[in-house]
Amino acid sequence: MRETSNSLVSKENSQQPKHFRGGKTKVMKKKLAAFALASALVIPTAVPAFAATPSDVVGKPVQSAVEELSALGIIQGYEDGTFKPDNAITRAELAKIIVIATGNETAASLMQNVKPSYKDVKANAWYTGYINVATTKGIIQGYNGNYRPSDNVKFEEVVAIIVRALGYQDKYLSGSWPYNVLLQADEIGLFGNIDIATGTLANRGIVAELTSNALGETLVGYDADGNQVDVDKNGKVITTGSPLVPLINKLGSSADKVLTAASLNSDKEVGLNGSREDTAASFFVTGGKKLAGLLGHTVSVLYNKDGDVLAVTDAQDAKNIVVATSDAINDVGDSTYIEVNDGAKEYEALSNLFIYDNTDSQANTYDLANGKEVVLQLNGDGKVQALLVNDWDANILLDEVVAYNDYSRVTTKNGGTFKVVSSSAISLNGEAVALADLKEDDVINVLVNDAGEAINVVATRNVVTGKLESVGLSGSDVTYQVGGKSYVAIQDGDDLTAANIGTEYTYYLNKDGKIVYYATASAVDNSQYAVVYEAPDAPVSRLIDGEVTLPVWYKVVYYSLKDSKKVTAYTKDADVITLDEKLIELKFDGDGNIALTPAQVSAAVNLNAAYEVNEVTATKLTVETGATDMNYVLNSNTIYLKVTVDGADTTVAVGAAADVSKGDEVVVKAEAGVAKYVVVTSDGDAADLPAVNGLLVSTKKVATSATESTYSAFIKVDGEDKEFAIDGDAYTTLNTLTKYDLVKLTDDGVANNALYEDVAHVARTAEAGTLTVDNATKTIVAAGANYVVTADTQIYVTQDTFDSVSVGSFTDLRVAADGTNYGTGANQYKVVVQASGVSYGGIAEAGVIIVKAY
């Protein structure tokens, strides 16, 4: 088993797309990346549609493998549009998959009627030919004359079959079953991010991922002396200097090319290396990406035997994508250079440089203007293979989306408009989404091509509400301070000034965190709605025109939502006594007296009849009303109030959407299901902060005054250094610890201060003396203590010097527990375990595990 400096089991290139290159010395194998697939646009499309991804694998790690195998015809989904990745798989089904993957489907058809060698395999059944071929080629073996076609397959059996499909033979592999095939599979990188799960049944998802990984692996054979040799797809030994052959070549071929068109044309052709190539009916852009988002990228292109493109996968290394500000394109002799960032950097371009302006193709003589956003797509040698000039319509507010037959029309609040088609790439806060997911007042940046079509829509939904605390200058930038934080404000001629300080606004931020728009924090209320503070049940006299009236008037004290203040008025209607502590729309006569109608009285909302909030989003409020929940639509016209109901001491304040949280008590006044008023009558108990398990990285203290400070801790969680607010005691405790000690932060649940107060910790030197691992149950015993390892368990790998740590896997624990490797000498392993505080079936969950190599 291989070792690296950062992991006991190598995961080299496990997150990258498949990527094949010629050359005898090396075949690069990169796993197809899995990215969350954007939901399809909810509009018909006039351009060619791509093959559909099964709904139950979208956004899951298995997605790209299923897409690839579906395109190749190796594996299929179900008629209901699902793949059912968790379903078990039978030995008959596995035989079909492996025979197709090795390019032997035709042979299976020829052997359909051949009498099987197994007693329990029927002649001429759907699986007969596949089992005959797999057995003849030595890929699958039986049991005492039986094949057991309906039996489910264990993980190690699938691995063995795939390893044999690549040409490896059991008799030449070292070790005993099943470790001989497992070790060989690990040696060639077959597992990627798949945990070894010997003894468990393999499901359809696992088989898809293992098969997908195998397609990029080199075919091998053996000479007469049993020496391993490289072979071609027909099993012939490859001569020195010839390129190695991956398994995929039995089905078609693969090549790296530059994507040179942002969409398919009307003939369903994809642009590659400046030319158009036919696509197969099952064509995929894997991982849910759009062609427009891959323009200029190096992509891995998968072809079928007819030479049609089956799939395109992003193979552009992130470090070879440079976003900069343009200067010029310079021709120097026979070479072209691109200068960026005020001449700070110069890149040499390829002679066949592809240039695009908002994805519209340009000639090589393109005049690059200064100050443009440019994206340089570099090849492996650091030369520019594609130049993308992005001329954004930036920092505009979305107004409305109207769907037509084959596109949607988007209008913006500055009067602009553009089309969104099926090839448009749309994102919200950095995540791929559908057009339907965008909402009014989202801040958007748009790239529009010459046809008026949006190539890329980058939306941001980031809103801050608070009183304007100050207006200042930072260089030439105007800044607004809100909630103690300073924001740069993009100027539009209607700017806030010192006169606005103290007023509460809602601020809309762009993707860079700058304020592009502001509005009053709550909707404007021009109605006569009011919250009645006081409605005495005894009539009083009034002084009118110098005369005292009979005691027939009722004095009403209310909070006017229109005027945002307390008001006193009178009425002769005795029904007013029923309106105490209610929300009502008042009517007035010509003298300014309240004139009640029966409809007004019956429509009044009792502020004491509040319901608990079960869920609240930007557009929906769900409250618990007893047997069933009630849903209300929230929009930009919803009015929010904060009311404390206590008779004469009742208080009313203007609120905002941010004041409504799960657990709050609210009263809702709705019209046709739309919440016109949401009144918060009591705040729910704030939930305790979730426990944080991870590795201590560092602490931070910031003095906020002569006597007060804020504290935070940086904890490595799931491989990332994240900051968490803590109190002073936790800060003191953490400062006594060592970097990479295992820590658990918890909220004491007492003070509602959004801070972590309690610290549990295990020193990184507190090693477990022994370790045993149960693959089937995913449990371990470390120093006599039992732990269950779940998907939430964080596993890290390091050396005893702790120079660095990297994310590990359950396989690393399995290696560490190997009796031949566990001890005190060189190349030995120790573990440190911190419990998460959660238990399963009475067994503690391991929150964080460190595996140390010596």
TrEMBL record:
Span list, region Disordered: 1-24
One Pfam family it belongs to: SLH
Bias-annotated ranges (Polar residues): 1-17
Residue ranges occupied by any SLH domain in the UniProt entry: 49-112, 114-176
Descriptive protein name: S-layer homology domain-containing protein
Source species of the chain: Paenibacillus arenilitoris
Lineage: Bacteria, Bacillati, Bacillota, Bacilli, Bacillales
